[in-house]
């Protein structure tokens, strides 16, 4: 791993815009931009987003958020006002569009020498910032949060580099496989709970065409949804995407035993694709809609959006929805994202920002945040998922507890077993962030299914591209 002074030289050489675009592209925020959050905003470019300032006499904490739905705006304004009243710090809230809007705005502020104190992002999408030395150490705040709750984080939800912790997790999104209970019972003869790959494939085949719906949806648009689809299956197959060789991180999905694992994943996806809608243009929003609009009898997504939007758009589907653990082959694991606070090292009011992180991470504001998108945004502590304080929610009371095919104890197990791409190596792999953001592995799926490319050629291309991206960040 490159030393910190090397990272800073790289930042000066390439400019903050390039670093942040690679780091935050596709950042979580809404059903179009990614798995997390709950906003409905689009890409607003580099201009300042909508702002709200709460005055205080101890300086101002600038928090830039990509969560720009009305629910999130109201939430952050409410708690920022309470924070200001309690501590005397002022808060400037700025809401930007998801994904490239967030990265472009942060880049512009960094270049101007006036970065925000805080934003939230996933390590897969913000790890490049830590790699370039623009983030501040939040080790004390992460330890404070564990002590506050008396729980331990799933270590994969953290992000550590050179002994410093750069993310304080506030929620996790993870793979969830949603299915039509009646279709599976009628077509496959059972309601799945913890299927292996073969059982799942047979079920998808048996339910293909039931009620004129396809068996599943394989996302293959050149977007991050398809990248996550590959990562999820690779983890379930016991394969490695990255590995450490001494102090260096290497791409291994195209080498040796891990190449064999990747080939098995792509061959399995080809089989699933026989019973899928045409997913060549399916990214996040299309993936969700395929379920509630009754195109498919099963969908994989990174959270509970398919159920939530079924409740909003087609309650008959929501009433007939079950949740299975992600199908497994070699390992009963799956992909997850943590979303957390990050703080910028050049910001002026880091003391106030640290206080704001602790204030917002207390149980009352944190659980209220999670309840904006319940069961979609889950506590970052596995042991907190079945806390009554978290489960005390109208959506969960009405749509989860009464449903025999959605089990909270399964969700607890899923949070315990979840893995993240940056947590694949020990120490964390910061270089996973730019590779992930370039959608290298999603393009591999598209090339195999729709690009007239052989599996071996697609693996070679993905491995070479991933290595090239990492070389650019590590020199």
TrEMBL record:
Protein name, as recorded: Extracellular solute-binding protein
Keywords, comma-separated and alphabetical: Cell membrane, Lipoprotein, Membrane, Palmitate, Signal
Pfam families hit by this protein: SBP_bac_1
PROSITE patterns: PROKAR_LIPOPROTEIN, TAT
UniProt region (Disordered), positions on chain: 25-54
Gene3D superfamilies associated with the record: Periplasmic binding protein-like II
Keyword DNA damage assigned: no
Gly residues: bias regions: 31-47
């Amino acid at each position: 791993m490159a030393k910190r002074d090397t990272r800073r030289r790289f930042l000066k050489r390439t400019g903050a815009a390039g670093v942040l675009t690679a780091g935050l592209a596709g950042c979580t925020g809404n059903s179009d931009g990614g798995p997390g959050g709950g906003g409905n905003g689009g890409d607003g470019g580099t201009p300042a987003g909508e702002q709200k300032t709460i005055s205080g006499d101890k300086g101002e904490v600038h928090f830039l958020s990509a969560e720009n739905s009305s629910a999130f705006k109201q939430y952050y304004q409410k708690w920022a006002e309470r924070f200001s009243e309690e501590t005397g710090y002022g808060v400037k809230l700025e809401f930007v569009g998801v994904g490239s809007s967030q990265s472009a705005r942060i880049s512009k502020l960094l270049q101007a020498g006036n970065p925000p104190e805080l934003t939230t992002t996933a390590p897969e999408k913000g790890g490049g910032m830590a790699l370039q030395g623009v983030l501040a150490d939040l080790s004390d705040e992460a330890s404070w949060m564990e002590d506050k709750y008396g729980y331990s984080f799933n270590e994969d939800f953290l992000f550590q580099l050179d002994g410093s912790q750069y993310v304080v997790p506030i929620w996790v999104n993870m793979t969830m496989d949603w299915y039509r209970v009646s279709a599976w019972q009628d077509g496959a003869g059972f309601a799945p709970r913890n299927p292996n790959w073969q059982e799942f494939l047979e079920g998808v085949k048996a339910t293909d065409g039931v009620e004129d719906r396809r068996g599943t949806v394989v996302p293959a648009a050149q977007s991050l949804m398809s990248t996550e689809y590959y990562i999820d299956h690779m983890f379930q197959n016991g394969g490695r995407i990255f590995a450490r060789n001494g102090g260096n991180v290497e791409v291994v999905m195209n080498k040796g035993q891990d190449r064999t694992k990747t080939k098995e994943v792509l061959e399995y996806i080809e089989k699933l694709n026989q019973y899928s809608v045409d997913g060549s243009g399916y990214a996040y929003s299309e993936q969700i809609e395929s379920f509630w609009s009754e195109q498919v009898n099963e969908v994989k997504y990174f959270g509970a959006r398919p159920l939530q939007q079924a409740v909003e758009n087609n309650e008959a589907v929501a009433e007939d929805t079950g949740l299975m653990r992600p199908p497994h082959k070699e390992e009963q694991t799956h992909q997850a994202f943590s979303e957390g606070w990050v703080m910028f090292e050049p910001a002026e009011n880091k003391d106030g920002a640290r206080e704001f992180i602790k204030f917002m991470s207390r149980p009352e504001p944190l659980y209220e945040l999670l309840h904006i998108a319940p069961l979609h945004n889950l506590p970052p502590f596995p042991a907190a998922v079945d806390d009554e304080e978290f489960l005390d929610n109208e959506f969960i009371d009405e749509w989860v507890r009464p449903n025999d095919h959605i089990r909270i104890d399964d969700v607890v197990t899923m949070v315990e077993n979840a893995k993240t791409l940056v947590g694949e190596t020990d120490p964390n792999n910061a270089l996973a962030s730019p590779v992930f953001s370039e959608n290298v592995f999603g393009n591999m799926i598209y090339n195999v299914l729709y690009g007239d490319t052989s599996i071996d050629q697609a693996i070679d291309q993905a491995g070479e591209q991933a290595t090239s991206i990492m070389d650019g960040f590590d020199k």
